[in-house]
Structure formats: C-alpha cells, structure tokens
Amino acid sequence: MTNHHYNLFSATLRFACGGARIAGFVVVLAMLFAHSPGARAQLLLDESPAKTLGADIVERRGQFVPQNLTFTDAAGRSVTLGDYIDGEMPVILVLGYYDCPLLCTLVFNGVQDAVNGIPFDLGDDFRIVTVSFDHTNTTDMARAKQDAFLAGYKDEIPDEKNGWVFLTADASNARALAESVGYAYAYLPESGEFAHAACITLLTDKGKVSSYLYGTTFPPQQLRLALVDAADGKIGGFFDSVFLHYCYIYDPNANSYVISAMAMMRIAGALTVLAIGSSLTFLFWSSSRVRRRAAHTHSPTSTLTTPASGLSS
To answer: What's the pTM?
Structure first.
C-alpha cells in the first residue's frame, strides 16, 4: 500500500469512526432528553393518584368507548359521543364536574396550559371533549366553562369546529362513559362532592383508548407525544410523524411516554452503516481517481518530444 493509499484509508477510517460517534451521540442525546424534566414530570407526580384521591383508574387501553351515548352540549342540543369522534382527529377526553371546588378546575387549567404549549391546532388537529359526571350540572354551567376556557386558548376557534366542547349528561350515560375508560368516581353525601382521580384520556380518531395522562399539570411534550400516538403519526410535521411517533413508547407503569431504547439503537445502527458506506464510497472514488491520474501520466501520448535544433544541412 502506497503512502497515499495509507493516508487515504486512515482518513476514511477516522471519518467512519466519527460517524459512529455521531450515532452514539444521538443515543446519548435522546436518553438525556427522555430523562429531562419535561419527560419525567409524570414520574414526579403522585405515583398512585387513584389511592390518594379516593377513586381508582383501571386503564382500558385498546378498548373503544361507546359512541351512541347521549349528552347535552353547551347550547342545549342533544348530541352523541360519536358526533365528536368522527374519524378525522384524536380526542382528549376530560371527565369532571363543573362546580367542583378545586380538583376539576386544576385539571381543566392544566389541559389549557398544555394545549397552549404544543404546535398543534385545536379543532384542526385534535379535539377536547369535557363531560360532567354530575347529572345535576346544568347547560348554563357547561356554557360558562366552555366560554371561559375557549377564551383562554391561544387562537380563536370557530364554533362549528367543536374544538373544545363541554357537555352534561344524565347519570346513566355519564357512568357508562366513565366505566368505558376505567374512570371511577363516587358521590360523598356528607360533603355533597365527588371523590375522583385527576386524569385525562387520549382517544384515537375511531374512539379507541390510546393512553392516559395523570395529575393536574400535563407537560406539553407529554401531551404532544400522546396526541401523535393517538393519531398514529398523522398529525404534526416530519419530526412528529417519524421521530416522536417511532422513538417514544407509552409506559403504563410510569403513566408517561419514554424513549424507546430499541428504536434509538436502530437509528444509531442505521447512522453507523450510512457513515461506513459513505466512507467506503469515498475511498473507492478516490482510489479510482488516483489510478486514472497515474494512467494518464504514464501514457505514451502524454510524453512530449522536442524536435532537434541546431543541425546543419
């Protein structure tokens, strides 16, 4: 091997190793992102919210909610759950009651803060359906809540888009909806209030339970991941549909989305193969170029002859 080929091979090897280091850096960066405060926020919440809040959640991921249940919207019209699960966008289902003294308002505020912090548009990319499980709540109460929280959203939403609706229900329909997503609540006669958990449920555009987010605050990154998952990667841009959708998985034990180690290993492997392939291609191209130059230099036609001068006749 000539010095030129040796130097070329060494440079190519360093380039390939650099590509491998880049791939490794991607894995490390992703792991750090997965353990950032936003990604771990769900772990910092109460690890057993159902126990401390006096009600239980039995997750029913993969099951469908009954879309024929009837409710009353904020305008007093009779509607069904299927009117909002239309096969076009995922749905955030929020259960609570409108005269709740504290917890429900905290959940509603947490949802509003979260949706204001994500790059998706309410009414175009996803929808929020809030249902009161207190059958004594009135349409006026639902309208007041709906007006207040729509006013606090970052953009104005036309009514026909049904971006965030607040519904009331009779006792049987409210209970059927709650049971379909595993959400338990109990009336406390001594206080006139309800014991219930702090939780929101993500539904697919077909009404299938996708995931749950617990607590009264919902990190925008977690909600963004939950919506991308519920939409099966059909909302957002390339970053959402490819990186977030395939590199994060829902961990039911942590009640949050976490980085998929297997997905990141695949990405790192692909980057490594790409780096090595690029290096070999560059080595082959450089070697061919050197050979062509050498052949041109030693060809007979490249040797110039100078005619003899100074000869006498």
So the answer is: 0.67
